[in-house]
Write a structure and sequence with these properties.
four-stranded antiparallel sheet, five-stranded antiparallel sheet, single chain, 0% helix, elongated
Length: 139
C-alpha cells in the first residue's frame, strides 16, 4: 500500500530436519539505540550485525518500521509511530546482533507522503555487517 516500502535481505533459511520448536516467549533482542553518532566497530562477534538508520523528516511521529525473521516468522523489532521518533530532522541508529537468517524490513509513513521530500529530507538505510542492503525516503 502507499506510504510504505519493504526489502528482504540476509541468508537462506536452513532446511528443517525436524519440526520447529515451539517458542512460548519471543526472545528479547535489547537493541542498542544511538542518536546522531554510533560506534562503527563490530559490535556482534559471531553474529550478524543489522543496523537501521533513520533520518527523520519534519513529521517524525509518522514514521514506523518492522524487522521480521522470514525463517521463523518472528517480529524481531517493531518501531510503531509516535513511540521513539520525537525529534524532527534527527538521525537515529538502532543496532541488532542477530543469528544468521533472512529478514524483511518494512518502513511506513502514516502520512502516506514518505520521508522525503515534501516534508523535509528524511531517509532510511539498513546495513548488514556494514554493507547497505536497503535505503530510501521517497515512497
Amino acid at each position: 500500500f502507499e506510504g510504505s516500502e519493504s526489502h528482504s535481505f540476509g541468508f537462506a533459511c536452513a532446511p528443517s530436519l525436524s519440526p520447529a520448536p515451539t517458542l512460548s516467549v519471543a526472545p528479547s533482542l535489547a537493541p542498542t539505540v544511538f542518536k546522531s553518532s554510533a560506534p562503527t566497530e563490530d559490535l556482534c562477534p559471531g553474529k550478524t550485525t543489522v543496523r537501521v538508520n533513520v533520518n527523520t523528516d519534519d513529521y517524525p511521529g509518522e514514521t514506523s518500521w518492522s524487522l521480521i525473521d522470514d525463517c521463523t516468522g518472528l517480529v524481531l523489532e517493531s518501531m510503531p509511530s509516535d513511540t521513539e521518533y520525537d525529534e524532527h530532522v534527527t538521525e537515529y541508529r538502532v543496532t541488532f546482533c542477530l543469528d544468521y537468517s533472512q529478514w524483511t524490513f518494512t518502513i511506513e509513513d502514516s502520512g502516506d507522503d514518505g520521508m522525503c521530500c515534501d516534508s523535509g529530507e528524511g531517509s532510511y538505510s539498513v546495513l548488514v555487517n556494514g554493507g547497505e542492503v536497503a535505503s530510501g525516503g521517497e515512497f
